[in-house]
Structure formats: structure tokens, C-alpha cells
Amino acid sequence: MDIVILAVVIAVVVLGALGGLIVGSRRKKQLPPPPPAAPDITAPPAEPHVGDEAETPREEPRRTIEEVDLPDGSAPVTVEEPPAEAPEIEIPEPTAGRLIRLRARLSRSQNALGQGLLTLLSREHLDEDTWEEIEDTLLTADVGVQPTQELVERLRERVKVLGTRTPDELRTLLREELLTLVGRDMDRAVKTEPEDRKPGIVMVVGVNGTGKTTTTGKLARVLVADGQSVVLGAADTFRAAAADQLQTWGERVGAHTVRGPEAGDPASVAFDAVKEGKEMGANVVLIDTAGRLHTKTGLMDELGKVKRVVEKHAPVDEVLLVLDATTGQNGLVQARVFAEVVDITGIVLTKLDGTAKGGIVVAVQRELGVPVKLVGLGEGADDLAPFEPEAFVDALIGE
């Protein structure tokens, strides 16, 4: 009996010990881990001021927000931008005698026309074959059929009367006849100064690719060199960058450029250019029109509209047709169509240097009945020259 009681007591003690162990292990699992100890943070040393030795930071006085003067907002803060540099204005060289200074540019035309005629006329016997060669030389130089026939007939008569022909006599004879053919008495001045008003109005027209916009810019230089103030109208609104190109030419000589939106109404731009020219008191307004294809009827009609709109301000004083001298007789077809749309008053022959044939001067004047007033003799800014018949003929036949 005592043994049984002892066994029961031992069992109870063992069970109680096991239960305590189980409860203790559960409590250990539920307890959160203790918080980590806060690390010691040491502030970095302050940067030393300029001229200070590295040392312990010093206490500096600080201002509160009430002590700081803040802007009250009454005066706007303006940021000054550096002024844009104005383009340097060039002073073009005087136009008087410019063609004489550029006469060397006509060297190839001289060989084709002047020197060729002198060589043929210097032959001892001028038979029919020689006169036919003279005719061919003139036609090849784009003089035209009718002017060629007239010149050959006059040369025949004068050579017959002259009899013996020295080189100097032949040169004098040929010079006189070519001057008659070119026309020394035609009025070649560009009309830019009407007596009753300002400004003078000049329209520049022509086919694409003739150098029309460049010629307009060079003409502005010619007028500025002669002491006139110029306003440019960029009425070629269809060719990309045409207005930019014209404005660049104007800025070089201090000429104001009036332009409109790309693909805008050309007549409106031309109208505004004349209006601004009046307000500014300019001497001349140059209007650069779009390069019309002479076969496009609608575009040619629009060119006529530009002229009519401009004339609401005042009559147009000059309509200059720009022709490429290298196109020869094809240029005459263009000239006819333009003359039907607007009254051409003068011709500008570009690219008359090098490969051009000098006889086109005669042909185009005969075709339109208007004078060649300006000639382009190169790519330089001052290579546009007033046409001088004597200088031109002297360049053709040489010294």
C-alpha cells in the first residue's frame, strides 16, 4: 500500500515538472526581441571658412525669419539678358565704273564674239564664205537673226568703202557698229526716285533659278552704295528660306525687310512693304516676287495681282525682269510671257561672265523693246553692275 502511494506521488511530481517546462518554452517564443541599443552618432566636423584653420566649429549668430527682409512683391524681378549683337553693316563700293572694273569677267564672251569677228574681218579677201562665217559667229553668240543681218549689211558697206583694212581701223569700225547694235542712247537708269513722292517702288520678277532673290539683295547694295535707303519686301512666300535669304542680304547693308508667313499671300506682303517704306521715309522699296514658271497661267495671273495690289499705294516705278544669260534664246520665250503679264521696264542679265554669250544683250532688247539696265558678272556681293554700253563693247573686242 505504501509502495502504491509513493508511486502516485512520484508520477504527480514528474507530470508537474513537464508541464512547467512546456509553459516556459511557449513564453520564451512569444516574447519580442529586445530593442537594439541606439548607436552613437558623431556629427562631422564643420567645413572651415576661407582663411580659417581646421578647428572646432564656432557658434555664429543666426537670424530668425522675422529679421530677414523679404521682397514685398510690388516690384517684379527682372532678369537682364545680354544684348544681341547687331550684324556689322557693310559699306558697298561705289557703282560708278563698276562694269569697267569687272570687264575681265567677259573674257570668254570676248573670245566668242569680238575676237572672232576681228579675226574674220582681218582676212585679205572677204568672200561670201567669210561673210557667212561672220553671220554664224553672230548667231552663235545669241545676237539674233534680224540684228545679225543688219550688222552684216552695214559691215559689208563700210569695209567696201574703207578698202585697205588695218587692225586699228577694223577695231574702230567693229566697235562703232556694235555700239549701234547695243544701243548707246537708251535710258538705262533704274527709276527709284519719283519726283512727286517717296518711296520709289521696284518689282523684281523672273523664272525660278535665274538668281532673282540674290539679284534683289545685290540691287539693294547698289542703291545703298548710291546713297539711298531701302526697304525689302519678301513677297516670295512659296520658296523655302527665300525670306531668310533676302533678310540676310538686307541686314548686311542696313536695309529693313518686311516678310510674312510661309506660303502666305504674296500680294499682302508686297502691300505691307510699301506701307512700311512710306512710314519709314525710305527712298526705295524693292519687292522680290516668287520665281514664276512662265508656263503656269495661274501663277502668272497671281504676279499681275501683286502689281495691282501694290499700285493701291502708288504706281510701280520699275519692273525688272531677271534673265539667266546662259539660257540664250530660251530666255526670250520667258521674256515674252512676262511682258504680257506686267509691263517690263528693264532687264537684269545674270551670269554674263564666263560661259554666257554677249549677244543676248542685243537680242533681248530687240525682243522686249526695253533696255538692259544691270548685269551680273559673278558670285560676289558687288558683282552686279549698271550696264554701260561702251564698257561692255570694249570688253567684247578686247584692248
Automatic annotation (TrEMBL):
<dbReference type="GO" id="GO:0006614">
    <property type="term" value="P:SRP-dependent cotranslational protein targeting to membrane"/>
</dbReference>
<comment type="subunit">
    <text>Part of the signal recognition particle protein translocation system, which is composed of SRP and FtsY.</text>
</comment>
<dbReference type="InterPro" id="IPR000897">
    <property type="entry name" value="SRP54_GTPase_dom"/>
</dbReference>
<dbReference type="Pfam" id="PF02881">
    <property type="entry name" value="SRP54_N"/>
</dbReference>
<keyword id="KW-0547">Nucleotide-binding</keyword>
<dbReference type="GO" id="GO:0005047">
    <property type="term" value="F:signal recognition particle binding"/>
</dbReference>
<feature type="binding site">
    <location>
        <begin position="350"/>
        <end position="353"/>
    </location>
    <ligand>
        <name>GTP</name>
    </ligand>
</feature>
<keyword id="KW-0675">Receptor</keyword>
<comment type="similarity">
    <text>Belongs to the GTP-binding SRP family. FtsY subfamily.</text>
</comment>
<dbReference type="InterPro" id="IPR003593">
    <property type="entry name" value="AAA+_ATPase"/>
</dbReference>
<dbReference type="Pfam" id="PF00448">
    <property type="entry name" value="SRP54"/>
</dbReference>
<keyword id="KW-1003">Cell membrane</keyword>
<keyword id="KW-0342">GTP-binding</keyword>
<dbReference type="GO" id="GO:0005525">
    <property type="term" value="F:GTP binding"/>
</dbReference>
<feature type="binding site">
    <location>
        <begin position="288"/>
        <end position="292"/>
    </location>
    <ligand>
        <name>GTP</name>
    </ligand>
</feature>
<feature type="domain" description="SRP54-type proteins GTP-binding">
    <location>
        <begin position="371"/>
        <end position="384"/>
    </location>
</feature>
<keyword id="KW-0378">Hydrolase</keyword>
<feature type="compositionally biased region" description="Basic and acidic residues">
    <location>
        <begin position="49"/>
        <end position="66"/>
    </location>
</feature>
<keyword id="KW-0963">Cytoplasm</keyword>
<feature type="binding site">
    <location>
        <begin position="206"/>
        <end position="213"/>
    </location>
    <ligand>
        <name>GTP</name>
    </ligand>
</feature>
<dbReference type="GO" id="GO:0005737">
    <property type="term" value="C:cytoplasm"/>
</dbReference>
<dbReference type="InterPro" id="IPR042101">
    <property type="entry name" value="SRP54_N_sf"/>
</dbReference>
<keyword id="KW-0472">Membrane</keyword>
<protein>
    <recommendedName>
        <fullName>Signal recognition particle receptor FtsY</fullName>
        <ecNumber>3.6.5.4</ecNumber>
    </recommendedName>
</protein>
<comment type="function">
    <text>Involved in targeting and insertion of nascent membrane proteins into the cytoplasmic membrane. Acts as a receptor for the complex formed by the signal recognition particle (SRP) and the ribosome-nascent chain (RNC).</text>
</comment>
<feature type="region of interest" description="Disordered">
    <location>
        <begin position="26"/>
        <end position="85"/>
    </location>
</feature>
<dbReference type="GO" id="GO:0005886">
    <property type="term" value="C:plasma membrane"/>
</dbReference>
<dbReference type="InterPro" id="IPR004390">
    <property type="entry name" value="SR_rcpt_FtsY"/>
</dbReference>
<dbReference type="InterPro" id="IPR027417">
    <property type="entry name" value="P-loop_NTPase"/>
</dbReference>
<dbReference type="GO" id="GO:0003924">
    <property type="term" value="F:GTPase activity"/>
</dbReference>
<dbReference type="InterPro" id="IPR013822">
    <property type="entry name" value="Signal_recog_particl_SRP54_hlx"/>
</dbReference>
